[in-house]
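Ligand: calcium ion. Inputs:
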Amino acid sequence: MRRIVKLSVRSLLLVFLISCPAGTELSAQAEWTVPRRDREILVDGFLQEWQGVPALELAPGLPGISSEGEFGEGDLRVAIQALWDEQYLYLALTWRDDTWDVEEVTRRDAVWLDSNRKRRDRMLLFDYLKFHVRQADYDYTLWVSPYHQEKGPFFWHRLLEGYRGMERAAGSPMITARELEDGRVTIELMFFWKELRLKPKEGFPLTLTVADSDLPGRLPESKLGSLKSVSWRGGWRFSQ
Ligand SMILES: [Ca+2]
Ligand SMILES: [Ca+2]
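Predicted complex:
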């Protein structure tokens, strides 16, 4: 049975709906309306309670998804689901990658200077997801890695606020990950709105980027020619 995802669509907005084999409706649109939580969410990395929640799918070549670099068949596919309530924002990730390259990059080491002295995000040299909210006087970034062979999920985050972009202390989201027998990685995250200093009623612009490296253990320089990533950029709204 096809479930129609209810979207608050602005004029001239293109909406794409695709069905995945499991029957969950997946969508990639420039505006994403997050449903209010109607079930218990246990942040344990198992996603059975997320069944039926619409998901945004990030993979090269999908409508509404931009990509950089040369992707091969079956390289990367990440489905992201979200729910909210008055206190928390919940995310569920189902991450498929044919070659995991999971390393911890601490915030201190997050910037890497290449041989031309160009500043680069070191996380882009590995498998990493970036969750980024940026609007006037507000900038929140979270980088989170998958979990593979008991490594990960690694993450760091940063909240900048105000005209000068002063850093604010913010409590970390709760993050739990699992590696499934079929090779997929599932991750659940729970953010406290109060720590994010965001109000769900207002909605906000969001960018999601997933970097894919298939060269575990290699030096950064040797990875530069094969960097690849997919991104989605749009507005997040929260159904009342
Ligand atoms: Ca769960
Ligand atoms: Ca990879």
